[in-house]
Design goal:
The chain has helices at about 35-45, 110-115, 140, and strands at about 10-15, 25-30, 30-35, 50, 70. A three-stranded antiparallel β-sheet has the order 4-1-5, with no helix packed on it. The chain has three helices and five strands, in the order E-E-E-H-E-E-H-H. It starts with 11 loop residues before the first strand and ends with a helix. Strand 2 and strand 3 (about 30-35) form a beta hairpin. By secondary structure, the protein is of the alpha+beta class. Helices cover about 15% and strands about 15% of the residues.
């Protein structure tokens, strides 16, 4: 969490135990990539919904098959968070995708962040997903 994550601002929600259902096929749901709606509805009827309320600096780790989503942020407060997904190097994507291909990480000294300094990013720096170039987004399919 970069900002507080609350029920009021639509924090992430997970269905407890849903990873045991195995992988659920994903497709287009309300203009985004999402899990099969029918299976999600059945899971919601049987499994506990957990709201992941967090403070800045908190983190949650969960299985890749765990059904998760966030609600709309209807407040005037931001709900920023950093999402990190891990994958084995041997499971490198076989075709171009919005997820990057395997690249070895370069370890930096503990002092690297301080040496780089902190800057406040402008709004354009947040646009890291170029929807018009990504075949998995609605914007690309419309063109």
């Amino acid at each position: 969490a970069v900002d507080p994550q609350t029920k009021a601002n639509g924090c992430m929600q997970m269905l407890k135990g849903s990873q045991l259902m195995g992988r659920i096929e994903h497709g287009r749901v309300a203009g985004q990539t999402g899990a099969d709606v029918g299976r999600v509805e059945q899971a919601m009827a049987r499994l506990e919904l957990v709201h992941c309320e967090m403070q800045p600096g908190d983190a949650v780790f969960f299985h890749a098959n765990t059904l998760h989503a966030s609600a709309a942020n209807t407040t005037d407060k931001p709900r920023r968070l950093l999402i990190c997904c891990y994958n084995k190097a041997t499971n490198d994507p076989y075709k171009p995708h919005h997820h990057p291909r395997y690249t070895p990480l370069e370890k930096l000294a503990d002092t690297a962040v301080r040496e780089a300094g902190m800057t406040k990013a402008d709004e354009s720096a947040r646009a890291f997903l170029h929807e018009e170039e990504d075949a998995t987004t609605e914007a690309r399919k419309a063109s």
